[in-house]
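Sample A.
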Amino acid sequence: IFIILLIKKSLFLMDNLILKIDKISKSFPRVKANKNVTFNIKRNTVHALLGENGAGKSTFVKILYGLLKPDEGKILFNDNVLNVQSPSEARQKKIGMVFQHFSLFDSLTVRENLILGIDTNMSFSNLQKKVNEISDKYQLPLDLDAPINTLSAGQKQRVEIVRILLQDPELLIMDEPTSVLTPQEVESLFKTLNTLVKEGRTILYITHKLEEVINLCDEVTILRDGSVIESSKLENETAESLATKMLGKKLSEIKTDYSHISNQINLKAENLSLNFNDPFFTDLKNISFSVKEGEIFGIAGVAGNGQSELMSLLTGEGIRGVTGSLIYNSVDIKNFNPKKRRDMSIAFVPENRLGHSAVPELTLSENILISQFPNNNFTNNGIINHSNIDTQAKKVIDQFNVVTPGIDAKASSLSGGNLQKFVIGREILTKPKLLIISHPTWGIDAGAEHAIRKSLIELAKNGTSIIVISQDLDELFEISHSISVIFNGQLSKSYETKNISVSEIGLLMGGKGID
């Protein structure tokens, strides 16, 4: 009887595993992204996948979803060997994925996007019926006739989730699902995910927000340098302990103080307005703010409320038709182009890393030249000084712990987080008087996030004024001295960060309280 009970228990444990990953390896030129990755995922759980940028998470998920083929190893899904050649085949096998960046057509309606995302033929009437069932069951209301470009980030994510649920997946992969959501939308998403699990689905949850892992997930697998460091339950874990395991070391505490901030205003915007007369752009309406020397000024907001337009205006890329004034050190720079602003010691890091902050096909050394300042000795009488440029590239790589084969590696070969570290390091090491940066730690790991935030604080202590545009409230509250919210092209008044709560800012991000 005892032996029979053991056999039954063993069979139950086997049946309780929806995914068994056995020695998955994948190599690229000069990089081994996955090294004998082995772990299991239990059915009806939320399983977190953590790791630094470049740890191998994206490679593994692409293998699981049919975007890449492993060099070695196998995956069992419901005890059957999983061998998918495409995302379409993965969906047919009941594996769905919600990507970090929305894959929706802005010019189409919700209904049209849903139809395009379904692999089988379905009439509009059947679609309406199924969407209504899913909306009621998981509290995901949708207006099928609404154009995608009119929706908030939370509503767009809702469309993505409903589109996947129409395929009835057993395993749902979610990649950085809360990166563009307000705190209220995050809470709503968590309720939906808990309902999905209770109903019998399994979720593989990829995030860099460790507090979310503690609050939502049942188990965790941690990758480091392509290998599994630990796969276990989350009992007795904290955000700090998870970060230590991910990085192999403990992170120091980040402290922001106000003592170094000067009364001297470095940048002042007054009634900046810009009309695009285009449904795909957000008009900017009477934007006013000021930033003192040594101050970090945070601008919060949900994606699509004018952040990109404001960033473009502040960098000098989108200035045609702008009204109002932008005073920098007593000079109105409203109509100055990016080069003229850089010549005045203004640095900037746009949101789009690859293609905007860095040129994909150029090497890291060559990308150093993008932040050319008058005093950086990269050129002499029009002749490029390759030695100085290479030295600077090595300095950025060393100081910001950029994981790369070397300074001759192309920008496109780096992971998103490592490229972000390189771009931000490149700008910080120029020691600008004003730094304008958009989403500095979006989608990067805890170690890189910590290093970048500390670097920004140190830069401010040395007198640089910094404007940070971000959707990450934890980030803004950790490093900013003052904070405003942008909603529908309007900017709220500025608040000292220490005197306002996250929930109050969250309400402003939803449009409540902004005139």
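Sample B, a different protein:
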Amino acid sequence: MLKELKIRNLALISDLTLEFKEGFNVLLGETGAGKSIILDAIDFALGAKADKNLISHGMELMKVEACFEDYNQSVSTVLKEMGFEDEGLLIISRSLGIDGKSDIKLNGNTLTLSMLKAVTMYLADSYSQHENLMLLKEKNQLEILDSLTDGLDNLKQELKSLLAERRFIGEKFSMLGGDDQNRNRELEFLKYQIDEIRDLNPTNEEENTLMERFKILSSSEKITNALEEAYFCLNQNNSALSQIKTAQKDLNTISEYSESFEQLASRLESCYYEVEDICMTLRNEMSHVKYDQHEMDQVDSKLDKYKDLKRKYGSSVELVLKTLEDLESKYQMIANADEQLVKLNVELEKLNKKINDACQKISLQRKKTATEFENGMCQQFLDLGMKNGRFKVEFVQTEPNLNGYDNVRFMFSANLGEELKPLSKIISGGEMSRFMLAYKNLNVKEKSTVIFDEIDSGMAGEIGSQVAKKIANISISNQVICISHLPQVCAMADNFFFVYKTSDNQKTQSHVEVLNEEQKVEKIAKLSGGEGITSEALAHAKSLLVWACDYKNSTKSKQSK
């Protein structure tokens, strides 16, 4: 329920704090006093479209803070889905600046407008603006019907398990290639992939050899020049090889004089043979390095094939070969899957029948509830003076899903001879208020705050008394906040807020006063008798309050039994 409402700089209200209570809260006051401004403030906090024109004249920012407690389980569920801790108390703060900048917070956490609406759609029903009506949105109507239907949870859980089984069988079908056409297509593609890898027959050794050969061929000129230069330095006229030979001979001529000279000559001899071997190797390498465009194209082409395979089947030759094993295994499994597919088809056929049966059970339960809902709503229409009002739940069968195979749409006609049309497209504002009043009298399962804006407009007499009773019924299990000018409706209220305005030379302001028992009688008498409050009007007001009290006590007593 809405526990507290703080309003700053909204239209005629500069600074106001209201404390609402359980049960039926009524807003009284002259036309134009500012009652609707309070409902505008609540709607703004609930996520209604922000309107800069509501900012008080001369002010830069308007702000509304709404504190809710004792809310229903659906609100708690949404909070948890959003990742917020459910603290048992919700403080919604929303502001709008004259520059168009806005800010929304929930318990200090910043929210988007869509997040705010996701919470408040279960927190309150405001029947002063169509965009806040859960019931008008067709996507919610199946959920609303199900909330009225007992025994669906177990049936839906059974259906959920059956659909999960079918998904599992579908996955098996996919693994085995599906139907004959898809299997043949899958086998052809697998064969193409397998052949593509086998044709190349990749190995790490070959890839490394190709990469090395490619490097040499692509730099052949540089390599050839370096090899030739090295060979020239080692084995041409006056080269290193001839110099070593000369030095060795010189040392041999003096080797008899010292063992050290002999050792040096021997080492130079070893160097000579080593350099000579290097020269032979250089000459051999030069013969291999010779650039060959045809060979270059072949090496480049084969390396491209390696790159292509690694791009498709793995980042290395090892992974490509592992993929080949997997593809071959899958090919064999699909190629030999006939017997398994026959078994799966039998299972699927049985499962589809079970799913259809489960959907049918859910649908029958819904249709039974829908008939009761339709009859109940039409009876409520009679009580509320809509004697020609008709209501129908239209069913359309769809593919089975977690909710069964039903889609529903609420159809409505207010006048004799007028065909039933979707509720959202045909109902007027006044009709919508009575419709919601009727609906709330049939569905009081989840606690919420219910807000009515002059729902009794244009009513009197017995119809007015019926409206008063309907609102009282709702207020037993829901908090009601309502603007009313009808004495019967006001008499049913548990809490009275009198809205009035004052003016000075500079501005007009709206104020709210909580009425005591004596003031309640006076205000109801004024509603009954006009400007002058006669003794008869006071007596009538007291009798209305007694009537209202007796009705509420009687209704509460019946509900407690």
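Observation for Sample B: Residues 338-383 form the longest helix (46 residues).
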